[in-house]
Amino acid sequence: MSPKIKEKQKPLLEVVNLKKYYPIKKGIISKTVGHVKAVDGISFSVYPGETMGLVGESGCGKSTTGRSIVRLDDPTDGDVIFQNKNLANLSKNEMRKLRTDLQIIFQDPYSSLNPRKRIGDLLAEPLRAHKLAEGEEIERKVNNILEIVGLTKYHKSRYPHEFSGGQRQRIGIARALILNPKLIICDEPVSALDVSIQAQVLNLLKDLQKEFNLTYVFIAHGLGAVKYISDRITVMYLGKIVEIAPTEEIFNQPRHPYTKILLSAYPVPNPHMRNREQIVVEGDVPSPANPPKGCAFHTRCPFAQPICREKTPPLDGENHQVACHFPLT
């Protein structure tokens, strides 16, 4: 169990059997002929003050999960329990009231900012929309949040194109933080940045978490960033969760073959560890429009057995959960 999770502590966020299917249309009348199962029945919990990492290959459903949690995409099925409320069942007006406690930081810091608005106006907009401040109070809050993320009040008169990628991501963080939320979905917030800038943004996120008691769902495919910032890690493959465990256990003792394969491809700077076992996985990721029967990973798993092709393994365990008929030891 992560040191940040206290016994009998209630989760801040519970995702229960979440599904997000996109219809496949065909013909002039746009007849639905199937569905892309981007997220296919996943469940996990996030506790106050912790960072839950969400990792997997591109297309595994990580970002769709994050967008479904904050209702940028409406879930097809399942429950998203946040502060004792099921977000999946709320109306737009009810959801609007919760936006101050639930925010998202997007992957691309440029396309997520309106290029026609000055930074000061972009940061003031959520305060006005939620009627949290007015007049000089708005200006004071904008100046304060810019200083917190490492910028100055003089930046608020500039437009997004006048900033570097790292600075724009700081602005994106400031926009999410200005409403004083409890939970922030970080949707690959450093993947579009240079390595040196990535470290600065990750350190900023960690500092802000301590200062404001924030809870993160940190989505990424780079294991280095996830290892640095996460308390626990959820591993996804083809719309399903295959493993959930504290970060140290995921890296030191992975129990699902897919997790072990991900880690074998993770570059390690320590020369004494470069001779570790390398696992070569063959074949392509199956289509989420036609996922394989049984375990989703069996078509590429070097340890697959006949039962893996017939029966879907449940996600079992307490502190270390794994969905595999033959988990690694």
From TrEMBL:
Pfam families: ABC_tran, oligo_HPY. Keywords: ATP-binding, Nucleotide-binding, Transport. InterPro entries: AAA+_ATPase, ABC_transp_ATP-bind, ABC_transporter-like_ATP-bd, ABC_transporter-like_CS, Oligopep_ABC_C, P-loop_NTPase. It comes from the Bacteria. SMART domains: AAA. Residues 13-263 form the ABC transporter domain. GO terms for molecular function: ATP binding; ATP hydrolysis activity. Gene3D superfamilies: P-loop containing nucleotide triphosphate hydrolases. GO terms for biological process: peptide transport; transmembrane transport. Belongs to the ABC transporter superfamily. This is Dipeptide ABC transporter ATP-binding protein. It comes from Terrilactibacillus tamarindi.
